[in-house]
Amino acid sequence: MPFSHHSHSGQFCPGHAKNSLEEVIQTAIAQKMQVFCLTEHMPRGKEDFYPEESSSSEDWHVENEAAFFAEASRLREKYASQIKLLIGFEIDWIRPKSLQLIQASLSRLPFEFFVGSVHHVHTIPIDYDTAMYNQARDVAGGTDERLFEDYFDSQLDMLQELKPLVVGHFDLIRLKSADPNATFTQYPGVWDKIRRNLQFVASYGGMLELNSAALRKGMSEPYPKEEICREFLSMGGRFCMSDDSHGVEQVGYGFRQVLEFVDRAGITTLHYLDISKGEDGPDSRFPATTIQSVSIEEIKKVPFWQ
C-alpha cells in the first residue's frame, strides 16, 4: 500500500489537523510512498462551519482553498523526483447548496479529482462528536437503523450527482453508533440500500477507498467493513487505499493491518490514481487522471513495508 488517496494538513485544515503540508509530504516520502493525494476540505457555507471555524468567513475558506492549491502545486514540482502527488479535495455533501459549492471549486481551480464524502445527515455532522450524532439520530427517528437508512440515501444522492472517482469512507455512519463493529445485515432495509449504492459505484467505475482511519478511531476493521468489501467485489468493484491522515503521525497509519484485512476480504488487486499526458482518463472532468491497477502480491514487495 504505497498509495494514499485522502489526506489533510494543519496548514490548510486548521483546528482539525496538524503540521504543514510540506511536512506531511516529507513523511510520505520517508515512508517510501509512491502516490500521495492531497485532499483538503472544500469551502462550505457559514451555516455548516464547525465550532472551531466560527470566527472565520466564507471568503477566507475560498482564499484558503486557493492558497492550498498554489502550495500543493509548488511542492509537487519540488518533490517530483521523489513522489507522485495528485491535487484534489474532499467534498462535503450537506444540503442542496452543496452541489453549487462543489461545482464552484471545480470551476475555480484545475483539480485532478475529488473524494466523494458524506459527513452530515439532515445537515448535522455525524462524525464530529457523539452529541451531534445523537441529534441527527433523533431527527431521523431515534434509532441507528433509521439514521443509517437516511445516510445511505443521502450518499446515493451524492453519488448520482457527482460520480466521484474515489468514494470516501463509505460506511462512516457507524463511527458514533451504538456498536461501530456490528454487522449492517442485521438491518435488511439498510443492507438493501448499501447494495444499491455499491451497484451504482460499480456501474460508473468508481473506487471505494480502504480507509485506515477507522482503525485509529478504535474500530476492528477499516472503512468499509469486510462484508461490504465482499459485496462490492462480487459486483466487480474496485478499491484504492487511504490513510485519511490529519498530520504526520497518521501518514500510513494502520496500513499493515489493512494489508491483512485485504487478504481476509479476498481482495487481490488494488487501484490507484495516476496522471498521464498520453491517454484520457475515465472521467471527462479530469482528462489527465487515470486509474491504474496493481496486484496485492506486487504490493507486498515494495520498499514501503521495510
TrEMBL record:
<dbReference type="GO" id="GO:0005737">
    <property type="term" value="C:cytoplasm"/>
</dbReference>
<dbReference type="InterPro" id="IPR016195">
    <property type="entry name" value="Pol/histidinol_Pase-like"/>
</dbReference>
<dbReference type="Pfam" id="PF02811">
    <property type="entry name" value="PHP"/>
</dbReference>
<feature type="domain" description="PHP">
    <location>
        <begin position="5"/>
        <end position="213"/>
    </location>
</feature>
<comment type="pathway">
    <text>Amino-acid biosynthesis; L-histidine biosynthesis; L-histidine from 5-phospho-alpha-D-ribose 1-diphosphate: step 8/9.</text>
</comment>
<keyword id="KW-0378">Hydrolase</keyword>
<keyword id="KW-0028">Amino-acid biosynthesis</keyword>
<dbReference type="GO" id="GO:0000105">
    <property type="term" value="P:L-histidine biosynthetic process"/>
</dbReference>
<keyword id="KW-0368">Histidine biosynthesis</keyword>
<comment type="similarity">
    <text>Belongs to the PHP hydrolase family. HisK subfamily.</text>
</comment>
<dbReference type="InterPro" id="IPR010140">
    <property type="entry name" value="Histidinol_P_phosphatase_HisJ"/>
</dbReference>
<dbReference type="InterPro" id="IPR004013">
    <property type="entry name" value="PHP_dom"/>
</dbReference>
<protein>
    <recommendedName>
        <fullName>Histidinol-phosphatase</fullName>
        <ecNumber>3.1.3.15</ecNumber>
    </recommendedName>
</protein>
<dbReference type="GO" id="GO:0004401">
    <property type="term" value="F:histidinol-phosphatase activity"/>
</dbReference>
